[in-house]
User: Fold this.
Amino acid sequence: MMRDRLWTLMVRRHADLRKIGYYFHGDAFEEMTPKLQSRVARSTAQAEEEEAEAEEIEEEDEEIEEEVVVEDDGEAEQPTAPASS
Assistant:
């Protein structure tokens, strides 16, 4: 009996949940609020793609850090301001 009531409540309120998800997450709300009875798990291809993107960002951060020129006294070299006329 309680299971039926819970399911009825979920069915009635799920539309509201999806509206709230759209409000906060825009077009990506489907990832946050899946449809009822959907058993679609996050695909491994999508997980691998996100992992690759994270690695690329880390590599870019490392490259930026390497570009900073350090003087002998340990201070970072300040970029020169363009001469104004």
Summary: Residues 44 and 50 are 10 Å apart (CA to CA). The first helix runs from residue 2 to 25. The mean pLDDT is 75. The helical segments are 2-25, 29-32, 44-67.
